[in-house]
Design goal:
Alpha-Beta Plaits; 2 domains; two-stranded antiparallel ribbon; TIM Barrel; 13 strands
Length: 301
């Protein structure tokens, strides 16, 4: 049985593809977007989230930890990562639920049991299952096995990806995928590395490959203040997208900083904390500029 690592399942979603959907979040990502809204998705391993605002500093987690990795300080309960083995005993011992294991190993049949509970909603709304992350393509065998099972049950499948993967792997995934939500984040490869962590050449190439082979794709552009919202970059995006065959629309995703608290809970520095919810080009202006190329552009998912 093929196993995979996920960190969340979101039911009754209406923002991750057509209709009412079940969104499954895979854990692990080859990138590290500065604005990532799911910092818990970046590592492919199980992690422990700590909510200081819930902690009553009772010391139960310290007593439960077999490796003496925890200590109470003025900043709350700190973890010595060199000692922590992520065994979860501190989580079980916490009476205030200030500690939580993030990430779990599952098999395809286990996920299908959850998915099939909502088939009626999919059928009535034209919905289905969306695989998100993290980056689903870093767990290709698990992803393909899940997509195959959904295909057998006639459940619509959407894969939310930035397309950073071996082309052969992407083609194997595409065979069982009804729709791709494909992110374009910057047209300049050096700036893409700076703000996303990986170059964009293979991403843009994979997007073109999918469309040239007739797969359904909707392009999504997160508009990030000070990162990719300058008119020159948007113009380059428009020219590139309009050169693609049979593009299935463009979605503009405005930036928001709702993930800031998550970074604090994971002890990660949020590199966008000085950015305000405004940009040199608003989402409406970006949509207007791209629409000039004859593209079907919408704001939001």
């Amino acid at each position: 049985m093929i196993q995979g690592m996920i960190f969340d399942i979101n039911k009754y979603s209406i923002h991750d593809g057509p209709g009412i959907r079940t969104t499954i979040f895979f854990k692990g990502c080859p990138g590290s977007c500065r604005w990532c809204h799911n910092p818990e998705s970046l590592s492919p391993s199980v992690e422990i989230l700590y909510r200081k605002d819930r902690c009553i500093e009772c010391g139960g987690c310290l007593k439960a930890c077999p490796n003496k990795a925890l200590s109470i300080t003025e900043q709350g309960v700190l973890t010595d990562s060199s000692r922590c083995r992520v065994c979860g005993k501190c989580v079980s011992a916490c009476p205030s639920e200030a500690r939580e294991l993030v990430g779990r190993t599952v098999i395809v049949d286990e996920l299908m049991d959850e998915i099939e509970k909502d088939i009626l909603f999919y059928d009535e709304s034209g919905g289905g299952v969306t695989i998100s992350g993290g980056e689903p393509l870093i767990q290709p065998e698990f992803l393909i096995a899940l997509l195959k099972k959904c295909r057998e049950r006639n459940i619509h499948t959407t894969v939310d990806t930035m397309g950073y993967a071996d082309p052969e792997t992407l083609c194997r995934v595409a065979e069982y995928t009804d729709l791709f939500l494909f992110d374009i984040k910057h047209m300049d490869s050096e700036k893409h590395v700076e703000c996303v962590g990986v170059p964009n050449k293979i991403i843009l190439s994979n997007l073109r490959m999918l469309l040239e082979n007739g797969y359904a794709v909707k392009v999504r552009i997160p508009v990030i203040p000070g990162i990719n919202d300058d008119p020159e970059n948007i113009e380059r995006m428009g020219k590139f997208i309009v050169s693609l065959p049979a593009i299935g629309g463009v979605s503009i995703l405005p930036y928001h900083d709702t993930a800031t608290k998550k970074y604090i809970q994971f002890g990660i520095d949020y590199r966008m904390k000085e950015i305000k919810n405004s940009s040199s080009m608003s989402a409406e202006e970006v949509a207007e500029q791209l629409a000039k190329y004859g593209l079907d552009v919408k704001i939001g998912t």
